[in-house]
Amino acid sequence: MPRDHLVEPVIDGLILHFSVERAELGEVLHHCRDAVQAALDQHYYVGVSHLFGVAAIALIRSGDAKTGAKLVGSMIANGHRPRGNASHALTAALGDAVDGYEAAGALLTVSQAGRIAVTALDAAIERIGTLPRCPTGPTHTDSFSACLPSEKMRRCNSFALSLSLSLAHSLALALALALAPALRSSDDTATRRHSRH
């Protein structure tokens, strides 16, 4: 497979990093799910592992912090450090229990954790689809989004989010292209390590 495919999970991860706490929960869950599945399909385990941090935040927002902690545990065990927002969100959701769930996740291979992530994200998508929704969109259980009081405000919020995602995409593309040579060698190392398990 052409090495250009390595750029896609990096772009997805950077866009999700900017939007995972702010965008509408359903959109975030779908984006995380599709990004993890695509990286798994490409056997790009470095990319899969990097996505576990944002997937964990999405799962916390949907009410499944325990699975999120397992994903972060797998991420750490494979040599990747989650961003501070993921660690803080897990500690806020689980307290001292976070260490036990992360330890359980550390026993998983990246592909195992990736399949768990996809299953959990699918379940979250189905779960929030059955919840009552505010007239303006976000679910009542979405702790990072509030019901907007007017259609005008909703449109302003949507425009601001679209603009921020567009800027994030441009930045992510530039960074991914700059990092592509390093990603190639990192992917080769991770693939060799994964093949030994």
Written account of the structure:
75% of the residues lie in helices and 0% in strands. By secondary structure, it is mainly alpha-helical. The protein has one domain (3-196). The model is unreliable at 132-160 (pLDDT under 50).
User: What level of helicity do the residues show?
Assistant: over 70%
Question: H/E series, N to C?
Answer: HHHHHHHH
Kindly, what is the distance between the CA atoms of the first and last residues, rounded to a whole number of angstroms? 22 Å
The low-pLDDT segments are: 132-160
Q: Could you tell me the radius of gyration in angstroms?
A: 17 Å
pLDDT averaged residue by residue: 74
Estimated structural class: mainly alpha
Describe the global form.
globular
Please describe the biggest sheet, giving its number of strands, its sense, and whether it closes into a barrel.
Answer: none
H/I helix tally: 8
Number of E-type strands: 0
Task: Tally the structural domains.
Answer: 1
Strand content: under 5%
